[in-house]
Amino acid sequence: MLKKLTKTLCVATACAVVAMPVLAADGPLRGNLRVVIGSSSTGGDTYQNSSIIAEALAENIGINIKVDATGVTEAYKALGRDKRGNTVMIFHDQAYLGNLYGVKGYADPFESYIIGPTVAINPGNAYLVPKNSPYQTIEDIIQACANDTQIRVAIQPGGVSEIGYTALKNAIKVRYPGKEGNLVAVNTGSQSDKNQLLFDGQADLINGSVQANEQYTRLPEDDQKAMRFVWLTARKETIEQAHEEGMGATTRDDLLQFVSPSASVTFDGDKDFTFDKEFFFLYNKDMDPAIIEQIDASLTEIFEAGEIQETQKKSFFIPNFKPSAEAQTYLKDKRDQYEVIIEALQ
Amino acid sequence: MEILSNLTPMFFALTAFGVMVGIVFGAIPGMTATMALAVCLPMTYGLDLTNGLALLLGLYVGGISGGLVPAILLNIPGTPSSITTTFDGYPMTQKGQGERALKVGISSSLFGGLFSAVILFLFAPTLADVAIKFSYIEKFLIILFALTVIASLSQRLLVGLFSGALGIWFALIGTYDITDGGNGEYRLLPDFLVNYLDSGFSLLPVLIGMFGLGTILQEAENGVREEAVDSVKFQKGAKFSFSIFKGQFVNLFRSSSIGTFVGMLPGVGGSAASVLSYTQAKNFSREPDKLGTGEPEGVIASESANNGLTGGALIPLLSLGIPGDSTTAVLIGAFTLQGIQLGPLFIGENTVTWDVMMVSLVFANLVMFMVMFFAIRHIAKVVMVPKFLLYPGILMMCVVGAYAINYGVMFDVWTLLIFGVFAWLGQKVGLEIAPFIIGFILGGQAEIYFVKSLESFGTLTIFFTKSPIALFLWGLIAVSVAYSVHHTIRAVKRKNGGNGA
After folding, report:
1. CATH code for the domain in which residue A234 is found
2. B62 pLDDT more than 90
3. Is 50 exceeded by the pLDDT of residue B80?
4. Which of B202, B261, B284, B405 has the greatest number of CB atoms lying within 10 Å of its CB?
5. Together in a domain, A236 and A325
6. Please, what is the average pLDDT of chain B?
7. What is the per-residue pLDDT across B190-214, written as a single tens digit (0 to 9) for each?
8. What is the ipTM of this complex?
């Protein structure tokens, strides 16, 4: 008898646990939500940011959410397959930059998918030189190119890593027409490979990030690994929103020295080029609009509560929630702006 | 002592739990240590950093070690780095020495794991400085050195080299990915296959297809003649005793060192470590002909090297903020999720976390040894399960593993089938599986480092002039190739002499 009762209780509890998320969710989005991301790394900023958002959404809507680091190709395939709305994607500006740079597998996200809300900015996109480099500032780099010195920049081609290189080349073209050829890209892959090129003396400037490279900037100058920031592509207003402590031992004030206008890379001779790496949702083209509204509403509630902003800032993200409609217009404008310089240099 | 306050019963329980789950992941064909960590990573969100790392390090050690079980008992490498364990482990099982082979493998794994943990603890920052001396060129030469194993593994030199080259060719199918610094263009890929093969063939489905499904198809062709259970003696002949390691200390030390060293070079990968140490075990062996026929020496080389990786791959992670292999790349997630920055100053600025990680790593190795060594007698009995029951189970695990490896890609299951059939038919026309797989595993990396070397330095001569390390590696490559050629000529002469007599 006791055995039977225990069995029944166990089964009932199991059923209740399984059913809980389904019952808790009272909007059109029910059951499980799979968040695929455009990165195959679980150690990068896309996974970190997506995990923060997924956890908050799961709690707010009352459903199970799992983040899968599938990489961009498989993420797009998974998104394309699921019209029910149980698979969504979180990615960043690479989604349209890859398309603008003509990288295979990058369809125009504004045509092929629905752009969802923006959620955060990673303000850490940076350019670094060896600590013993003769170039102290980004202006020194521009002047070196103007004086016919070849500057090699290690980047990962076709996206966020390349946009800063393109902007720098554009700035040289605007200020010293014909000299932009002195800035050359060294195409490489991971951050490790970019660092290695700097250690080997095969690059004069590398793309990196505040998060990944800050500790290298605190090494003594005679260390082969020592580096120095010369440029952060983020807007000044974006960095100003970071915690005062900044990252590691580099304070927010320290970081502000490396953004426009202190570190100036002109866009058109008048205003400076800036680039904030923004994370946003992408949806299947045929997804139920009610689900889009539900996610927008849920995120609005989450950001109004204010707790998530602290979590994001603790991880060196800048909160940047914009509901779907606003995000679509905003990101389209942003894409159009960068399209101008990419096309001019291709 | 701040460290003692972190060493709670929960900490040790999580490490032990991680090891046990990791062993299960490693032992299931198609599931890897990387997958175990990726699955459990979200769990660390609710734990503090110390306990999160305890769980993940346990999974790491368990996952790497568990791969030897199917490699030895079923000839299916549980993880890519246990491929060389099959070369001698499975023949030992066929000779009725499955339990002995497993115990040799587990003891070697313990030695490799502890050896690399000690190296990590004592020399991490210094070795990280050595690691950055290895540019694209030196990494390419290490891969090339590992590829020379194809020559010494070949039953017939020319066919083996052809099989290896074919493996490399298959590895190059797909996109030259921009995340590798490539141009994003498709290679060797007809338009109608772009949708399936844009990322190329995945390693794990190819591996378990060729070893797992290929074997099952072969057995199916032969017909399942079920032997009486008691005739399949899984422990006949010599029993395990630690005296087996007598005279193997140099092999253990050399293989653990190779594992640790290759582990600390970001981007070179675990498979290269075990392949390299197996080659060296064969080259230095007094009876090289016997390797590949069921010699404990081969299992020792492979297993001590792939566990040597665990500490080795943590060196660049903790001293440079750069993961040494795909599994430690997941481990980095535990730090980022907790907002902890990794880099060259990590150890100095986080001494407690560093000490706790070392305790966890050593404890995980000890738990792995205790769990596997004493449970193995029961695990080894899997070979006594009738094949008509065993093979469908293995097939199901292979399919599940292949489907799950890239988060649910159906084409990976087709890959499993394609390469299973390919291995079965290929062997009929003389294709050699081991050289093919080694070519497939190392081909992609060889291409990237070769192309990147040329792009960065612009000349072929740089491969010989870049550094003393490059010259040293060329020396090793030359010795390895010369040895294989000499060995082949000697074998042919012996055969001819035998025929003549």
Report:
1. 3.40.190.10
2. yes
3. yes
4. B261
5. no
6. 88
7. 889 998 998 899 998 998 899 889 9
8. 0.88
Interface touch A36/B408, C-beta < 8 Å: no
**Do the chains contact at A51 and B42, CB–CB below 8 Å?**
yes
Residues B345, A78: C-beta atoms closer than 8 Å: no
Residue B421 C-beta-side C-alpha neighbours within 13 Å: 5
Is residue A183 in some structural domain? yes
Question: Which of A69, A157, A202 shows the shortest C-beta gap to B178?
Answer: A157
Dump pLDDT digits (tens) for A150-180.
Answer: 999 999 998 899 999 999 999 999 999 999 9
User: B77 — phi, psi (to 5°)?
Assistant: -65, 120
Residues of chain B in contact with residue A188, where contact means CB-CB under 8 angstroms, are: 181, 452
The percentage of residues in chain B with a pLDDT greater than 70, rounded to a whole number, is 96
User: Average model confidence (pLDDT) for chain A?
Assistant: 91
Instruction: Give which of B32, B44, B178 to mutate to test A binding, by max A Cβ within 10 Å.
Output: B178
Q: Do B329 and A55 touch (CB under 8 A)?
A: no
A58 shares its domain with A177: no
CB contact under 8 A, A187 and B181: yes
Q: Is residue A152 part of a domain?
A: yes
Query: Shortest CB distance from A225 goes to which of B182, B185, B344?
Result: B344
Domain hosting residue A172, numbered range: 125-256
- Which residues in A lie closer than 8 A to residue B43 (C-beta atoms)? none
Q: Do A116 and A130 lie in a common domain?
A: no
Cβ <8 Å between A189 and B38: no
**Three-state SS letters, chain A:** CHHHHHHHHHHHHHHHHHHHHHHHCCCCCCCEEEEEECCCCCCCHHHHHHHHHHHHHHHHHHCEEEEECCCHHHHHHHHHHCCCCCEEEEEECHHHHHHHCCCCCCCCHHHHEEEEEEEEEECCEEEEEECCCCCCCHHHHHHHHHCCCCEEEEECCCCHHHHHHHHHHHHHHHHCCCCHHHEEEEECCCHHHHHHHHHCCCCCEEEEEHHHHHHHHHCCCCCCCCEEEEEECCCHHHHHCCCCCCECCECHHHHHCCCCCCCCCECCCCCECCCCEEEEEEEECCCCHHHHHHHHHHHHHHHHHCHHHHHHHHCCCEEEEECHHHHHHHHHHHHHHHHHHHHHHC
Residue in chain B lying closest to A203 (CA): B456
pLDDT value for A1: 43
Domain assignment present for residue A333? The answer is yes
Nearest residue, CB atoms, A192 vs list B322, B336, B339: B322
Judgement on whether residues A159 and A226 belong to the same structural domain of the protein: yes
My answer on whether A114 and A151 are in the same domain is no
What does the pLDDT look like over B402-445, one tens digit per residue? Answer: 898 888 889 999 999 999 999 999 999 999 998 999 899 999 98
Strand pairing of A32-37 and A87-92? parallel
* pLDDT band at residue A25 using 50, 70 and 90 as cut-offs: low
User: Which residue of chain B has the CA closest to A192?
Assistant: B322
To the nearest whole angstrom, how far is the Cα of A73 from the nearest Cα of chain B?
8
Give the amino acid at B292.
Answer: G
**Quick one: CA dihedral A215, A219, A224, A227, positive or negative?**
positive
Instruction: Tell me what pLDDT residue B208 has.
Output: 87
Contact state of B181 with A189 under an 8 Å Cβ cutoff: yes
The alpha-carbon gap from A296 to the nearest alpha carbon of chain B, in Å, equals: 24
**Residue of B39, B331, B456, B465 to mutate when probing chain A, most A C-beta within 10 A:** B456
Query: What's the domain count of chain A?
Result: 2
Q: Are A186 and A295 in the same domain?
A: no
Q: Is residue A19 part of a domain?
A: no
Cβ distance B199 to A73 less than 8 Å, yes or no, reads: yes
A105 and A160 share a domain? no
- Which of A198, A228, A256 finishes a domain? A256
CATH number of the domain within which A284 lies: 3.40.190.150
Same domain, A139 and A218: yes
